[in-house]
Amino acid sequence: MADDEPRGNLLFGPFELSSKERALWRDGVALPLGSRALDILIYLAERPGKVIAKQELIDHVWPDVTVEEGSIRVHVAAIRKALGDGQFGNRYIANIKGRGYAFVGALASLGGATEGRTARSWRQGRLPVRPIMLIGRETFVTEVGDRLRNDRFVTLLGPGGIGKTTIALVVGRVVAQAIGSEIYFVDLESLTDPHHVAAAVATSLGLSLKSKDPGPELVDLIRSRKLLIILDSCEHVIEAVASLAEQLYQQTEQIHVLTTSRELLKVEGEHCCRVPPLDFPPDDSEQTANAVLRYPAVQLFVRRVATRAGRIVLTDKEAPFVADICRKLDGIPLAIELAAGQVASLGLENTVDLLVSRLELLRLSHRTAVARHRTLKATLDWSYDLLSDAERIVFRRIAPFVGHFTLDGARSVAGEPGVGVEDIFDAVAGLVEKSLIATRIDVVQAQYRLPNTTRAYALAKLEEHDEVDMVFGRHAEYLAGHLETLREALSSLPGAERAAVYSDQLSNVRAALEWSFGPRGETN
Questions:
Q1: Confidence band for 366, pLDDT divided at 50, 70 and 90
Q2: Among candidates 473, 465, 477, 483, which has minimal Cα distance to 521?
Q3: What is the C-alpha separation between 399 and 311, in angstroms, rounded?
Q4: Which tens digit of pLDDT belongs to each residue from 458-496?
Q5: Quick one: residue 418, left, alpha or beta (phi over 0 = left, psi -120 to 50 = alpha)?
Q6: CB-based contacts of 524, cutoff 8 Å, min separation 6
Q7: Alpha-carbon distance 17 to 92, whole Å?
Q8: Which of helix, strand or coil describes residue 118?
Q9: Which pLDDT tens digit goes with each residue over 217-273?
Q10: Distance between CA 107 and CA 348 in Å, rounded?
């Protein structure tokens, strides 16, 4: 794209910038930025990463007026204030000493509109009126938006609290504007009867259905309309949503469907976009304030603490504690936000200590969130209640594993009289499909892992069923045998390679030893 070619609207952080409308919005609210400052921001943002000399900016903003460089500095300061530039590690405008200014924020383009389309000609239907803040999701939003525009039917897949709804709202607005369509958001959480799914969609669209077979009637009513429909929280009525979404995709040409679910719909036309956790500082990374603030998980944490406790400045002394919290919470946005609320009351070190207690971890709360996101326990209850009996058994019995485990490990700890190996493997597959278990397939043998918050919940269920001693005993026995098998299999390998294989088992060994030498363990 040439430097002087205007782009579509640009998304960066919580901001949207329009060169056509000459406007800057934050979370959908227009910001009062002066005309000259907008000229400068638009010029820089449309040339991301490029250093623009001060004189070039002056010539662009004041083409027929002689002004001093101080005028540029005044307006750049106004831009930085409006953007909160420099807060929580967010940087948008960089001053390159002796050269000029550059836009350095991560941008997502809201382009893709057809030629001649009037700016913002899309119609917003019933969307939640809520602040939208995205950190570290710009590239993902662009990828999902491109897929939805091109393929019309996308499911955002991931565990509870990963940010599916927030991303869906942002992507929905981006795509609706790009294609010039109406957009409607349908929250399915409160539905208890799957037969009401089509009626819920119709109600959101302002329609009334009369047929005993509402799906086809709804499709007939909206077939000729240009719509983007967001179906949020589909997993508990998955069959009905799958049927309706497939009809909308197959029997219309201008309707786009974006669903959020902890489980795929598994129907024709569906394209999966799995929502990743936020990047967090690894154990072996630099732990200074500047270093950890490069990670979106830390940026979110600091911003949320600031909203509760006022402006904060992260120090090098505090940085390792924040990094540790974000690691313990696996980069899951909901968990990070809940923990940030505790920091505002208890401080960093006390919150780190609190997270060691898995029960306290599950009780972290957010009073005004939707019911299923009010606590981590509520989020996991929502998923647990949708499991089959076999999946519930396997879920709680794999809780002793810290880090990765294999199907053989799951079989060893989750066995039940009358339950075959195939049933256990099917249960593990079901837990993966329902986003409760993470997988690693870039190894010789597929490996699985319970995220820390999910493992805390599974351990609580294990205690609730009075199976702790039995299952931890099985875990210790399995691990002893597994390590012996590894010793024999790896005996011919160089020491460094053997050490690398064994290092993957250190967390499990530690857990087995703690139980074995604990008050309820067996040391023989």
A1: low
A2: 473
A3: 39
A4: 999 999 999 999 999 999 999 888 888 877 766 666 666
A5: left
A6: none
A7: 13
A8: coil
A9: 999 999 999 999 999 999 999 999 999 999 999 999 999 999 999 999 999 999 999
A10: 32
